[in-house]
Each structure stands twice: as structure tokens, then as C-alpha cells.
Amino acid sequence: MINGSANEFVDRIYTCQDTVFIYKGRKYWFQGYMPNENTVHMEIVQTDPDAEDYVWEYNGSSIKEGEEAFQTAPIFDGKTFWEVEQEMEWADC
User: Fold this and answer.
1) What is the enclosing helix (H) or strand (E) of 10?
2) Per-domain residue ranges for the chain?
3) pLDDT in tens, 43-59
4) Which residues of 45-68 are buried (b: 16+ CB within 10 A; e: fewer)?
5) How large is the angle between the packed helices 6-14 and 63-72, nearest 10 degrees?
6) Residue 13: what are its φ and ψ, rounded to 5°?
7) Predicted local confidence at residue 52, as pLDDT
């Protein structure tokens, strides 16, 4: 990961911290929150250029499951985070 550690990036996902990153010239924003004590919501939106819908979204009862879902989802041109992390730039670390 450019400008940071991939493991530290995943740790931020686990703590649901807003995180900005760039992949193939496109800027993304991750955010997560707990709308109530039994639900976790995590999402990634493309912000530059703007996309109309979420790039990825998780709704469940566990932050850990959301973190795992992020790591295994084919979000980036059909590839997972770990397959492309060396091409990603952490923009707000």
C-alpha cells in the first residue's frame, strides 16, 4: 500500500474510521457506523469521479464480519483488497 501499511488500513476498517484511498486514479471513501447497538453498517463510495451508488456495502451485526467481508469482496475490478493493496494509495493516513 502506497503511503501506509495494508495491515494498519484494515485495522482502520475494523474501527470504522472514515478513510480515503485511491485506486487506479479513482478516489474512494470508506465509512462505518453502528445505527443501533445490534447493527453495523459499512460502505465504500467512489468520490472522484462521483459514482451514483455504493461500490461496496455491508449491513450486519458484527464489525469483525464486516471487516472480513471487505477483505474478501471483489470490489476492485473483480479483485479483493489483498490482491490490489500494493496498487492502492492511502490518501488520509
Assistant:
1) helix 6-14
2) 6-90
3) 999 998 888 889 999 99
4) bbeeeeeeeebbebeeeebeebbe
5) 140
6) -60, -45
7) 84
For residue 93, the model assigns a pLDDT of: 58
**Beta carbons within 8 Å of 78's beta carbon, 6+ residues apart:** none
Which residues of the chain fall short of a pLDDT of 50? none
For 25-89, the DSSP string reads: TEEEEEEEEEEETTEEEEEEEEEETB-SS-SEEEEES-HHHHHHHHHHS-TBTTB-HHHHGGG-E
Stated as kind and residue range, the H or E segment containing 20 is: strand 19-23
The 3-state DSSP class for residue 13 equals: helix
How far apart are alpha carbons 16 and 34 in whole angstroms? 9
User: What is the model's pTM?
Assistant: 0.88
Q: What is the rounded distance in angstroms from the CA atom of residue 8 to the CA atom of residue 5? A: 5
